Amino acid sequence: MLAGIVIIFFGVQGIARLTAAPEDQRAAAYHFGVSLSEYRKVSGLMILGSAGVAAGLVVPALGIAAAVGLVVLMVLVAGLRLLCQDGALRVAVPLVVAVLTAGTMVW
Q: TM segments (predicted)?
């Protein structure tokens, strides 16, 4: 159940970010202080992480590796949001997602 939520969350987020209008992607990349290419790569990593967690349902080691990568990614996102002074809620959301993703490793 938790793995399913994590798979859907990261898959949908990654796809939404990659298919967003180019001006929206540029605005988000600018907000975080990264290049458009880096923003798109991170979006792709979200999709790959989602696929890795899904594959982990068959090969547990792969799922654990993917979940660790996604947890690290979310901690970095929280740090970027903190640096951008986005406010407590926007910093807390990726941290909560990181904790839920970590939960897939212990299940």
A: 44-76, 88-106
